[in-house]
Amino acid sequence: MPDDQHDGSDDAAGSASDAGGRRSGRRMLTLVLAVLLVIVAAAGVRAVAQRVGTHSGAGGGLVVADQAAVDRGVPHRQVSFQGRLLADDRPWSSASVRGRVLVVNFWASWCGPCRAEQPALSAVARAWRDRGVVFIGVNVQDTRAAALAYTREFQVPYLSLFDRSAQIAAELPAVALPTTFILDRDGVIAYQLTGKTTVPILRARLDGLLARGGRWS
Would you say the pTM of this structure is higher than 0.90? Predict the structure, then answer.
C-alpha cells in the first residue's frame, strides 16, 4: 500500500488515545477537586473546634442549647452564690436579695439563643419589678468588652455578674447556654429552664411561684 494511503486504524487509535487521555485528565481533575474540598472542610472543622474551645473550654464546657426552654429536673435545694458585677466590678451576693424571688440567667454575647431570648427577659424584668422579682444575669466565657456591648445593644434593665471562668455555672449548676434559674424567696431552686425562654414561659412559672407566696414548698 502506498505510504500516503492507510486504512484509518492509526487515526482511530490516536482518537482513542486522545479520548482516554481526556478521561484520565478529567478523573485527575475530579480527584484534585475532591482533595481540595476535603482540605477546606477539614479547615472549617478545625475553625469551629477552635471557636468552641475558646468559648467552652475555660469553664466546664458549656454548650449552646438552641431550643425552646424546657424544664430540667433539679433538686429543690437552697443555693447561695456571689460574684463581681460586670459594669463596675463591685461585689454582689444572692444573699442581698433573699426574701425576693430571683431570676438568674446565664448568657454570653456570642450565644445566638441568648440574644434571641433577651427581649423576653428584659420585658419580664421590667413588668415584674414591682412584684418583688429580681433579675440577675451571669455572663460566662466572654470578654468584658463584648459583654458590656451586649448589655448596651439590648438595653438590659438589670445587672449582670462577670463570670468568665463559669464558676457560678458550676455551682448551681448550668451546663448549657442559655439557662435560667428561678429561686424562691428562701433561695431554693424552683425551676431550671434550659434553652431560649419566652414571656409566656417565664410568666407561667413566676405566677405559679408567687401564688404560693413566693416559696417552692
Answer: no
DSSP states along 192-206: EEESB--HHHHHHHH
Q: What are phi and psi of 189, to 5 degrees?
A: -70, 115
Strand-pairing partners, residue 101, are: 133
Domain over 63-211 is classified CATH 2.30.42.10:
no
* Segment 123-160, tens digit of pLDDT: 999 999 999 999 999 999 999 999 999 999 999 999 99
Q: How confident is the model at residue 24 (pLDDT cuts 50, 70, 90)?
A: low
- What gap in Å lies between CA 217 and CA 212, rounded to an integer? 8
Distance CA 172, CA 181 (A): 9
Cβ distance 170 to 60 under 8 Å? yes
SS (H, E, C) 76-133: CCECCCEEEECCCCCEEEHHHHCCCEEEEEEECCCCHHHHHHHHHHHHHHHHCHHHCE
Residue 61 neighbours by CB under 8 Å, 6+ apart: 175
* Cα distances (angstroms) measured from residue 117 to each of 51, 67, 111: 22, 11, 10
Q: At 43, list the grid cell.
A: 479547615
Q: Cell triple for residue 56?
A: 467552652
| Cα(105)–Cα(147) distance, integer angstroms | 14
Minimal CA–CA distance to 201: which of 83, 98, 103, 112? 103
